């Protein structure tokens, strides 16, 4: 590896830290070779050699006290971290390009134009890239668990043709103890343990539950009960995915039956940019334990 690429690699890390980014890792593409079609780095940048992954932690107090009001989590746990990540990715992509290597920064959260709306899936998995880049492991609930901040991070990736040397993958104690609090906390039966999935990143294999994307999306919009949105039209109680038509009919029902609340939520969302409701599967995961002085005193 020539010295200039290592100098650029160091500059990327220093810049990320100076921009307030908590976690940064780099992976080569061999660790992500098992990704499905449309999720390969080269699907976006054919000359790609590496992926830089940034992670930012959001305040634990807003998560632990989500039941007081979901607004803090929606804004400081979703909207602002995604903007901070976008800003940092923009700066770092320009830095790497100034060193002579093209970059394709992915948008932090799925944007309607780029995501697969029939499956409610984004264009690239930041979570899998983060595991490959050494930031942590995939938990039973499919989310990244980091040793420093557990699930409570947002992520973003920059695909680049710079041939950076990869960081080592996480190799510490198991981060998910399969306590299943996340499964029990889901208000929509969206995480199905009867259909386990497995994926391999580098030389590690992770097993996690199936997520029913439309059921979850319904709750992320705050339509279902106990998601923070107060529209409270339950999902069907049966197991399994919702389906696009069923989703749409319930969405229209919510619009007609709870018109005032629906309008209020839409305006509120536009006022502070788009953000998620629910997130209960993330909130209840308490890894790592005893990070705060108050918890250590108990
Ligand atoms: S709550 Fe966290 S530690 Fe427990 S099973 Fe879910 S992801 Fe694993
Ligand atoms: S965000 Fe809410 S609805 Fe979606 S899987 Fe997590 S707990 Fe369930």
In terms of topology, how is this protein built?
Layout: H1 3-18, E1 23-28, E2 50-57, H2 60-64, H3 71-98, E3 103-105, H4 126-132, E4 137-138, E5 144-145, E6 153-160, H5 181-185, E7 191-201, E8 204-211, H6 213-220, H7 244-257, H8 259-271, H9 280-283, H10 293-296
Antiparallel strand pairs: 1-2, 2-6, 3-6, 4-5, 7-8
Helix pairs in contact: 1-3, 7-8
One iron/sulfur cluster is lined by residues 185-186, 188, 190-191, 211, 216, 219-220, 278-281.
Question: What features would you describe in this structure?
Answer:
- The chain is globular and about 65 Å long.
- The chain is of the alpha+beta class and 298 residues long.
- It is 35% helix and 16% strand.
- It has helices at residues 3-18, 60-64, 71-98, 126-132, 181-185, 213-220, 244-257, 259-271, 280-283, 293-296, and strands spanning 23-28, 50-57, 103-105, 137-138, 144-145, 153-160, 191-201, 204-211.
- 42% of the residues are buried.
- The protein contains ten helices and eight strands.
- The longest helix is centred in the first third of the chain and has 28 residues, at 71-98.
- Helix 1 packs antiparallel against helix 3 (71-98) and helix 7 (244-257) packs across helix 8 (259-271).
- The strands form three sheets. Strands 1-2-6-3 form a four-stranded antiparallel sheet, sandwiched between helices. It has a two-stranded antiparallel ribbon with strand order 4-5. A two-stranded antiparallel sheet has the order 7-8.
- The chain has a domain at 3-186: 3-Layer(aba) Sandwich (NADH Oxidase).
- The chain binds iron/sulfur cluster (2 copies).
- Residues 139-141, 176-182, 284-285, 287 line the site of one iron/sulfur cluster.
- The site of one iron/sulfur cluster has 13 residues, from helix 6 and helix 9.
